[in-house]
Design brief:
The structure is a single chain. By secondary structure, the chain is an alpha+beta fold. The protein has 3 domains: 236 residues, no CATH class; 287 residues, no CATH class; 160 residues, no CATH class. Helices cover 15% and strands 25% of the residues. The strands form 11 sheets. A 6-stranded mixed sheet has the order 14-13-20-19-18-17. Strands 29, 30, 31, 32 and 35 form a 5-stranded antiparallel sheet that branches. It has a 4-stranded antiparallel sheet with strand order 9-10-11-12. The two termini are 56 Å apart.
Length: 691
C-alpha cells in the first residue's frame, strides 16, 4: 500500500511508495496526518502519472511499446514514454522503480476527492488517452473531452474516466509473462470515493471512472462514512486478490480436534505465511492456533537449525562461521552485491537466517522483510505424523520380524507431527505441527549463483525482483533403503523436494525422526542432490516426484524431466533411485534411469533459441497392474500433446521403455490436438480401474 496526494503543479505527489502494509502502516498514518487541504484537484493528471509509477522510471521498470485498445479494431502501440509523458512528484526516499514485480500481482488505485476535476488538462492528445473510452467519437464533445450536458470546474476536463479505462485495458508490464511464456495482463483497477461535496458525489464522471476502471464508486458525507467507504473498497479488493497457496489437513477424516494448515503469500514484500486452524467436524474453521511467520519472528536467528549441502555432497550448518567451508559457488554468491563482489558473505548468511540488523533503506542496507519466511506460492504444506502407508509384510517387502513395515510403524507411532513446505526464501522448511516452531531449514546447493538477479544474494537486494527458489510441493514416503553411503538398509521416511520454476534439481532428506533435526546432524539428514549438472536432460523440475518400489528391487523417485532442459530437448521419464547418489556421484543406469520419448529437439543447448523445438514431460501417474506393491506402468503427458505409457514391469530394468513403439521409435498412447495444433498436457493424468 502507498499514498499519493493531488499536486496542482505536477498532478500526483507520491509521499509513501507501495510497500507491505505491516512495514508502511506507521509511515502511512504519519503521512495522512500531515496532509493539508490546498490547491486544485487534478484527478486525471494524478491518475495518469500514477500510471507512470506503475510502469516504472528506474529498475525495475518497463521501457518499450505499450498496446492501447488491445484486441480491438483500433489497437495501436506507443512507446511508454509517449503514453506516460509526465512524472509524479516523488517524496524523498520513494523509489522510482515499478512496484509491479511479477505477473501474478494485482494493482488497485483508490481515488478519494472532495472536488471535481480542476486544473486538470495537462494530458496531451498524443498520449492516446484523452478519449480512450470513445465517448466523444461522434464529435459532440467540447475541448478536453467535456460533454455538452455537464458542468465543469475552472480548468476542468473529462479525461479521468479515459485514463481509468486505459489503465485497466492496457498491460503496463508486458515484459512480465508467466513461466509458460504466456502473456499476463498487469493492469490497474480504479475505485472512486466522492466525499463531502454533492457536486462530486452526483457527478457522472466519478461513476464512469469506477466503471471504466472495473472498480466501485463509493460516497461519503462525513468521516465515519468515509471510513466505511475505504473499508468497502478494501473488502472488494481483498476478495479479488488470490494469495492462498495451499491447504493441508492433519487427518483424512474431519472430526472435532482436526486441524487445517493454510499457506499464504504477500506480493508486496514477498513474505510467506503458514497458518494452523482448528477445524470442526462440520468443516467450520473455529480459531487460529499459530502462524509460522510470527513464530519465526520471535525465534532468535542463531537458534534456527539451517543446513545446506556443498558441491562435494556433504552437508553442514548454514552459519556465518562456516562461510569458508562452503563451495566456491556458494561463497561467490553470498559475497555478491548489486554492483559486484563486496565481501559481505557473513552478513548475508546472517540475513538469510533471519537477522534484520542490516535491513533498511540506505544504499548499503539489505531488503526490508516482514518476516524471514518467504512467499509460499506453489508448494503445498505436507503433514507428516506417524507412518501410515500400507506396505505388506510379505515379499517383495521385508518379511523378517524387526524389518517389517509394521515394526517400523509401531516404533514410530509417537514421533513428532510435522509440516514440510518449500518457500521462495531458498529453503525447505520443517515446522512442528503443534506450535509452528521451525525445527529445520534446508538450502539446496543448486540455488546458489553469483549471476545478477539470481542466487541467494538477490534475496538481500533492495531492488529484488521476485524469483522462485524452493517452489515445488515435497514428496514424502517411507522406503526400505540405506540413507548414508555404506549404511544399513532399513525403513526410513524420505522427503524428495524440488525447485519447480526455481531451478533444475531435486534433493532428498531423511526425515524419519524429527528429534534429530539439528545442524550438528546435517550430514545424517541430507541424502543427496540431483541436478542438471548430473544430467542435462533434467529441466526445470515442475514435475512433483512419486516415490515407489520398482520391479528391479530399487526404491525410486519417478518424475517427468520438466521443461527447458539444456540437453537433448526431448521429453523424458526420470527414475532416480533413492540410494543412488549417496556417494556423491550419479551414474546413468546404475544410480538412475531415464526413458527417452525422442520427441523434441534443441539448438545451442537453449530452448529459447528460435530453432529449438523443445519438449518436456509433465508429472506422471504410476500404476501397479498386478497388485504386488511395485510399479508396472507409468503414464505422463508432454508439451507436444502426447500421452505416453511407459512399461517398467520387467525385473530387468534394461527392458524398461515406451509401452508402444514403431520399430525402435517410441510412440505415444494418444496425442491431443486442436486441428493440427498440439495441445500441451501439463497436468498429471488420473487412472481408474475399468469395471
Amino acid at each position: 500500500m502507498g499514498l499519493s496526494a493531488f499536486d496542482g503543479g505536477t498532478g500526483a505527489a507520491i509521499s509513501v511508495g507501495i510497500d507491505d502494509i505491516a512495514t508502511n502502516r506507521a509511515t502511512m498514518v504519519s503521512a495522512i496526518d500531515a496532509l493539508t487541504p490546498s490547491g486544485s484537484t487534478p484527478l486525471a493528471e494524478s491518475l495518469h502519472e500514477l500510471g507512470r509509477y506503475f510502469v516504472g522510471q528506474s529498475n525495475p521498470q518497463y521501457d518499450g511499446l505499450l498496446t492501447l485498445h488491445p484486441g480491438q479494431a483500433n489497437e495501436t502501440t506507443k512507446d511508454d514514454d509517449a503514453v506516460f509523458d509526465n512524472s509524479p512528484n516523488y517524496a524523498s526516499g520513494v523509489a522510482k522503480g515499478s512496484p509491479v514485480q511479477y505477473f501474478c500481482q494485482q494493482t488497485f488505485a483508490v481515488l478519494m476527492t472532495d472536488g471535481r476535476p480542476q486544473s486538470d488538462r495537462d494530458i496531451a492528445d498524443s498520449t492516446g488517452l484523452t478519449d480512450y473510452d470513445g465517448d466523444c467519437a461522434d464529435g459532440s464533445c467540447d475541448t478536453y473531452d467535456r460533454k455538452p450536458s455537464r458542468t465543469y470546474e475552472s480548468g476542468g476536463s473529462d479525461y479521468l474516466d479515459d485514463v481509468a479505462a486505459a489503465l485497466y485495458d492496457m498491460d503496463l508490464r508486458p515484459d512480465l509473462d508467466d513461466f509458460a511464456g504466456n502473456e499476463v495482463k498487469n493492469n490497474v483497477k480504479t475505485y472512486t470515493i466522492g466525499f463531502a461535496d454533492d457536486q462530486v458525489i452526483n457527478d457522472p464522471l466519478m461513476q464512469d471512472t469506477a466503471a471504466n476502471g472495473n472498480g466501485l464508486f463509493l460516497t461519503a458525507s462525513n468521516s465515519s462514512e468515509l471510513g466505511r467507504a475505504f473499508e468497502d473498497a478494501a473488502q472488494d479488493i481483498l476478495s479479488q486478490v488470490g494469495s492462498i497457496a495451499a491447504v493441508s489437513f492433519n487427518t483424512a477424516t474431519l472430526t472435532s480436534g482436526s486441524q487445517v494448515f493454510q499457506a499464504r503469500f504477500n506480493t508486496t514484500r514477498w513474505s510467506g505465511e503458514l497458518h494452523a486452524f482448528n477445524l470442526e467436524a462440520s468443516g467450520t474453521i473455529s480459531s487460529e492456533i499459530w502462524e509460522a511467520g510470527d513464530v519465526l519472528n520471535s525465534t532468535s536467528p542463531s537458534a534456527r537449525q539451517i543446513i545446506t549441502n556443498t558441491s562435494n555432497n556433504t552437508a553442514l550448518p548454514f552459519t556465518s562461521g562456516n562461510l569458508g567451508s562452503l563451495s566456491s559457488v556458494q561463497q561467490n554468491d553470498l559475497n555478491m552485491g548489486p554492483s559486484g563482489a563486496d565481501g559481505r558473505g557473513t552478513d548475508r548468511i546472517d540475513y538469510l537466517r533471519g537477522d534484520d540488523a542490516d535491513e533498511g533503506t540506505a544504499s548499503s542496507a539489505f531488503r526490508i522483510r516482514t518476516t524471514p519466511l518467504g512467499d509460499i506460492v506453489h508448494s503445498s504444506p505436507i503433514f507428516v505424523g506417524a507412518p501410515s502407508q500400507n506396505y505388506p509384510n510379505v515379499a517383495p517387502f521385508p518379511e523378517t520380524v524387526g524389518d517389517r513395515y509394521v515394526d517400523f510403524k509401531n516404533a514410530q507411532q509417537g514421533r513428532t507431527e510435522m509440516l514440510y513446505v518449500g518457500a521462495n526464501d531458498g529453503m525447505l522448511h520443517a515446522f512442528r505441527a503443534s506450535d509452528g516452531q521451525e525445527l529445520l531449514g534446508f538450502i539446496p546447493h543448486e540455488l546458489f549463483s553469483s549471476q545478477s538477479n539470481d542466487g541467494l544474494h538477490h534475496l538481500t537486494e533492495q531492488d529484488y525482483e521476485h524469483q522462485y527458489y524452493v517452489d515445488l510441493t515435497p514428496t514424502i514416503s517411507d522406503a526400505y533403503i540405506p540413507v548414508v553411503d555404506g549404511g544399513a538398509t532399513a525403513w526410513h521416511t524420505v522427503l524428495v523436494g524440488g525447485l519447480r520454476g526455481g531451478g533444475r534439481g531435486l534433493f532428498a532428506l531423511d526425515i524419519t525422526d524429527p528429534s534429530t533435526f539439528s545442524e550438528a546432524n546435517a550430514d545424517d539428514l541430507f541424502m543427496w542432490e540431483f541436478t542438471s549438472a548430473d544430467d542435462a536432460d533434467l529441466g526445470l523440475t515442475f514435475s512433483q516426484p512419486t516415490i515407489a518400489r520398482m520391479n528391479n528391487g530399487e526404491w525410486a523417485a519417478v518424475l517427468g524431466n520438466g521443461y527447458n532442459n539444456t540437453g537433448s530437448g526431448t521429453a523424458q521419464l526420470f527414475i532416480v533411485f533413492l540410494d543412488g547418489g549417496l556417494d556423491g556421484t550419479w551414474t546413468l543406469d546404475a544410480d538412475y534411469m531415464k526413458i527417452d520419448t525422442e520427441v523434441g529437439s534443441i539448438v545451442n543447448s537453449d530452448c529459447q533459441d528460435a530453432s529449438s523445438d523443445c519438449n518436456g514431460l509433465s508429472r506422471p501417474v504410476l500404476a501397479d497392474i498386478d497388485g504386488n506393491g511395485t510399479v508396472d506402468r507409468v503414464y505422463a503427458g508432454d508439451l507436444k500433446g502426447n500421452m505416453w505409457a511407459f512399461d517398467v514391469s520387467a525385473s530387468n530394468d534394461g527392458n524398461w521403455g515406451s509401452a508402444y513403439s514403431q520399430g525402435n521409435t517410441p510412440r505415444p498412447l494418444f496425442t491431443a490436438t486442436d486441428g493440427t495444433t498440439p495441445q500441451p498436457i501439463t497436468s498429471q493424468p488420473t487412472l481408474a480401474d475399468h469395471p
